Amino acid sequence: MSSSLSLSFSELTQEDVPRILPLVSALNEGRIDEATLSERLTAMWGENYTCMGCFDRDKLIGVAGLWLQTRHYVGKSCELDHVYLLPAYRGKGVGEKFMDFIHQWTKEKGCQSTELNAYVTNPKSHKFYFNQGYAVLGFHFQRKIDHE
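RE: above sequence
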């Protein structure tokens, strides 16, 4: 990686799924095969979903999925999903700049808040989000539905 970064941020499209896949796959530590991830990401574009990209020159180095919705407890909100930055770019202020871009975008969309889930196994992300002004409001629970 060059010592001088040339960062830019932009909205990605459904056609960018092949570029997004390696980053989302790394976030999931390979637990979900790329064909399934591709199918799911493609379907998400029809469900009030947007994906933002963080670039160093033309190289996609980070992604963040954004879900716009209205919630009874806060009003219009944006839930960040699958936020990921390549490890070589962490600790250099890139994540903060990416989040600043996302927060400005959500403000322009009229959101009153942003929220996200972070894996409990990733304490470094917890520290990052606390430093970004996020607070823990509760637990995220999941129950899988058996289709057999």
